[in-house]
């Protein structure tokens, strides 16, 4: 499993098309701040903060009930060789 960053930038609306996602690296803060006035450094080492994320696996059936059967409610990037995830990311890079 990947190690999560202890500090990252919040409040930035710049999209990283190469890696598909928001620009969040703390070392980019000084460059991002002038165009993103609400940007701030989020430090997970402070009391009450966490970098645990939302990696709970959940299955949802067609009726919206969470249970052991049904369809996946999120994509996990835990397996870098998952062809479905990689295909989706390549598609998003073209947008």
Number of helices: 2
* Total individual domains: 1
Overall pLDDT level = 76
Helix share bin: 10-25%
Would you summarize the structure shown here?
This protein is an alpha+beta fold. Helices cover 17% and strands 17% of the residues. The two termini are 28 Å apart.
Commentary on this structure:
By secondary structure, the chain is of the alpha+beta class. It has one domain. The protein has helices at 29-32, 83-94, and strands at 7-10, 15-16, 21-22, 40-43, 59-60, 71-72. Strands 1-4 form a two-stranded antiparallel ribbon. The longest helix is centred in the last third of the chain and has 12 residues, at 83-94. It starts with 6 loop residues before the first strand and ends with a helix. The mean pLDDT is 76.
Furnish the topology, listing elements before pairings:
Elements: E1 7-10, E2 15-16, E3 21-22, H1 29-32, E4 40-43, E5 59-60, E6 71-72, H2 83-94
Antiparallel strand pairs: 1-4, 2-3, 5-6
List key phrases describing it:
single chain, two-stranded antiparallel ribbon
